[in-house]
Amino acid sequence: MEINIGSLLTKRTYLNPDNEALYDVSANRRFSYKQLNERTNQVAHAMLSLGVKKGDRVALLMMNSHEYLTTFFAIAKIGGVVAPLNWRLVPDELEFILKDSGSTVLVAGEEFVASVVELQSRGAKTDISTWVHVGAAENCPEFATHFNTLVDPQATHEPIVTALNDDLLYIMYTSGTTGLPKGVMHSHNTQMAALITLNATNDFRIGDRYLDPMPLFHVGALTPAIAIAYRGLAHVLMRSFDPSKIWELIKSEKINNALLVPAMLGACRMVYDKSVHDYSTLRWLLSGAAPVPVSLIEAYQEMGIDIHQVYGLTETCGPACVTTPEDAVRKAGSAGKSYFHTDVLILRPDGSECDVNEPGEVMVKGDHIMLGYWNRPEATAETLVNGWLVTGDIAIRDEEGFIYIQDRLKDMIISGGENIYPAEIENVILSHPGVADVSVIGVPSEKWGESVLAIVVKKDPLLDQKMVVDHCNGKLARFKMPTAVRFIEAIPRNASGKALKRELRIQFPTL
Questions:
Q1: What is the pLDDT of residue 294?
Q2: What's the rounded Cα separation, in Å, for the pair 419 and 17?
Q3: Which of 3.30.70.3270, 3.30.300.30, 1.10.357.10, 3.40.50.720 is the CATH number of 413-507?
Q4: Looking at domain 24-187, does it have CATH number 3.30.300.20?
Q5: Is the Cα dihedral 351, 352, 355, 356 positive or negative?
Q6: What confidence tens digit (pLDDT) does each residue in 170-187 have?
Q7: What CA–CA distance (Å, rounded) separates 509 from 511?
Q8: pTM, full prediction
Q9: Calpha distance 65→71 (Å, rounded)
């Protein structure tokens, strides 16, 4: 079978042309599958008119919108490669990703004009030669082409499909343990395999209405967005998360399912008003990025709402493990069992499988595993071993086969659903002349799951928390900024010089 992810939209249009495909909440625009596919084809022809060809990288810096979805599917159809950009990043971080990916076209929303102007002024520090502006025409920079001006005149017929199967579909960047982001490569085949295992395990039904408040630059939003077209659902797309609006849309749009990270679940629970809100159509909520607190699961179950906990990675195109609602409280804190077409093992350092309740490293296998890291052959070789993805996560498996994540070898911090690697923050803080040493850890946060704590050894006796935080401002995205700074005489390290972060977590259990 020949697979092109963009053509899934074409096939769904053939089967169900008049079914609702998308409601862009912010723009207040609704699309049938026929309308969405025709607009996608116009975007595809627009990209071709810019000279985009098979293998060319096109970066997207946009809030959730119909323009985002149509551009993604359009690039997939014509064989281009999408580079989704986290819009919370600062220009220095965006510059690295644009240059590393070799992106030559940037499609950016009007919210990011300041960053776009800054990036364009840096010239050859990126390879961007074509700038496309989405939003109000009066905000379009002189050097950019307006999206609608480019797209509106184009034809609606299907473009020639040039990419199939193992051809590259997108490069999604994740923070690296060395402080530099790594581009996770997924093909049309790996994405298709993710859709198959997702639909074989999760309770999606044709005709369901799926609410999506998650940013599309995350695999946790992008894979479901593609799965919606594959399965024939209606996609209710929010520009950004708003807990009060969530309940309004569940009622007015008769929502059946959605994915919310634990911080979102908590925020929604706080604003819930049973005298106003009606969630009678809601069948389940999916939640991932961090374990859902038992109290929150119980609160939603008392409301009659099932919480399906999920464990996955960008490298797995999303799916790895999922917990069914009947086990959500009984197996609280569990990542669940592996998806249908996915294998998960917990191994000792010697490669043998761990016994029940014995900690080991999580390994994931399936056709949805990434191709590798873009331009990072050594990192790829370390992470893909004999067909298995080495996750860097430590877990145990109980006697019933449920997996519990215990710790992360890579010291990743998860705050509000965002993956944060301490090394990147440590590198920035170490560049302050008043800092002698630093180690960054995550500490529990009721609101965000984890918060960033910087533990610093002073070189300058006058150094204080404000000076450290101010130094990070503008060099790191807001979600990576230290929430607090603590000072210590020396960072505990082992014989090879690695910081003993377990000891630091014991010494600094809270902010």
A1: 75
A2: 38
A3: 3.30.300.30
A4: no
A5: positive
A6: 999 986 545 678 999 999
A7: 7
A8: 0.87
A9: 10
